[in-house]
Write a structure and sequence with these properties.
The chain is mainly alpha-helical. Helix content is 70%, strand content 6%. It has 4 helices and 2 strands. It has a two-stranded antiparallel sheet. Strand 1 and strand 2 form a beta hairpin. Helix 1 crosses helix 2 and helix 3 packs antiparallel against helix 4. It is elongated, with a radius of gyration of 31 Å.
């Protein structure tokens, strides 16, 4: 990995080549903590290391427990979300059918010489279900 360090102002840059082992470790740290590679290198060069305030193993165990709880909640609510999605799709289908029936009703009213009814609240309800 080629590393180039440029100053904020002026000229002069430093270029160096990092061996594969160090480059691999930097990339692993980047993936593990979700931080860009550039930020990992910056932290290493400026010495912005923070010492953990608590026992690191306890914190990692707590994080694993919280992740386990998240997955349990996900497993519990997944069927509800699936049912809600199904109901939403059913509502869309019904809104399409209702829109067609309203149009047909307007056409029949025109055919028999009556004035078509305009119901804005019904149109608003149909559009709400078509969007959701």
């Amino acid at each position: 990995m080629k590393l180039t360090i440029k100053p904020d102002r002026g000229f002069g840059k430093i270029e160096t080549e990092l061996d594969d082992e160090i480059a691999g470790e930097i990339e692993r740290l980047s993936e593990r903590y979700g931080v860009p590679v550039e930020r990992i290198i910056e932290i290493a060069l400026t010495g912005e290391f923070r010492k953990p305030s608590g026992n690191l193993e306890e914190l990692e165990e707590r994080a694993r427990e919280l992740e386990k709880q998240v997955w349990e909640l996900e497993r519990e609510y997944a069927p509800l979300r699936f049912k809600a999605y199904g109901l939403s799709e059913d509502n869309k289908v019904l809104a399409i059918e209702l829109s067609g029936l309203v149009a047909e009703n307007s056409g029949l009213r025109r055919f028999i010489g009556m004035r078509p009814e305009v119901k804005p609240e019904l149109r608003k309800l149909i559009s709400y279900y078509l969007q959701g």
